[in-house]
Write a structure and sequence with these properties.
single chain, mainly alpha, 9 helices, globular
Length: 211
C-alpha cells in the first residue's frame, strides 16, 4: 500500500477511542473523563521501576510474538486451511487479503508509520479490544468469556467480512484470534494494565514493518 495512504487511513483508528467512550458516556450518564479513568487511562501509581519493568516485559513479549508469528500463521494457513480446503482455496484467500505493508517508504514515512504504531494503532486497538470490550462485557459475563468475545471482534476487525472474501476470513481468522487471546490474557494477568499490552502490540507491528 502507498505509505501516505496508509498513514492517512491509520488516523481513523482514533475512532476506537472516541466513539465507544462517547456511547458509553451517554448510556451510563457520566463524563468522558470518568469513562477513560474507569478503563485505565489515569495516572499510574506504579513506581518508575515497575513502569520500566512493564515496558521491558511488553517489549520482550512483542519480540516473542513476532518470532512465533510465522509458525502460528503456518499452522492456520498450511496445516489447517490448506489441508482442509486445498491449495487453490489458500491462494484465493491470500489474493483477497488486505495488505497493510507500506511499499518502499522513505525515511520520513517510515518514521511516521512507526510513531503511529506506538501512539495510535497499539493504543487505540488495545483500549477498545482489551480495556473497553473486556471491561464492559465482564459486567454481564465472567472475564474469560469477555476476553473470548473481545478476541472474536479483534479477529473480525482484521479480516472484515464486508471487505474480504470468505476464503480470506476462514484462512486468517484463527491467526488473529490466537494473538488476540494472547494479548487479552496478558491484559488480565497484569490486572487490567494496558502498558505492557500496548508495548507488546506496537513492538510486534513495528517488527513486521521493518523485517
Amino acid at each position: 500500500m502507498d505509505p501516505w495512504i496508509l498513514i492517512s487511513i491509520t488516523f481513523l483508528e482514533l475512532l476506537f477511542l472516541i466513539i465507544p467512550t462517547y456511547i458509553a458516556k451517554t448510556i451510563e450518564t457520566n463524563s468522558l473523563k470518568e469513562q477513560f479513568i474507569d478503563l485505565g487511562f489515569t495516572k499510574s501509581d506504579d513506581s518508575i521501576p515497575n513502569i520500566g519493568a512493564k515496558i521491558i516485559l511488553g517489549f520482550i513479549l512483542g519480540i516473542f510474538f513476532f518470532l512465533i508469528g510465522g509458525y502460528i500463521l503456518y499452522f492456520f494457513t498450511i496445516v489447517v486451511v490448506s489441508n482442509l480446503f486445498g491449495a487453490d482455496f489458500l491462494v484465493d484467500a491470500q489474493k483477497g487479503a488486505i495488505s497493510t505493508q507500506p511499499l518502499q517508504p522513505n525515511i520520513l514515512q517510515l518514521f511516521i508509520l512507526i510513531m503511529q504504531q506506538i501512539f495510535i494503532i497499539a493504543v487505540c486497538e488495545e483500549f477498545f479490544f482489551r480495556a473497553f470490550l473486556i471491561e464492559k462485557i465482564s459486567y454481564k459475563l465472567n472475564v474469560i468469556h469477555a476476553m473470548i468475545i473481545s478476541s472474536l471482534f479483534f479477529a473480525i476487525y482484521h479480516v472484515p467480512p464486508f471487505l474480504v472474501p470468505l476464503s480470506t476470513i476462514i484462512t486468517y481468522f484463527g491467526y488473529y484470534f490466537f494473538f488476540a487471546l494472547l494479548l487479552g490474557t496478558l491484559y488480565i494477568v497484569l490486572n487490567q494494565s494496558l502498558l505492557s499490552v500496548i508495548v507488546a502490540h506496537s513492538t510486534f507491528n513495528i517488527l513486521v514493518i521493518l523485517l
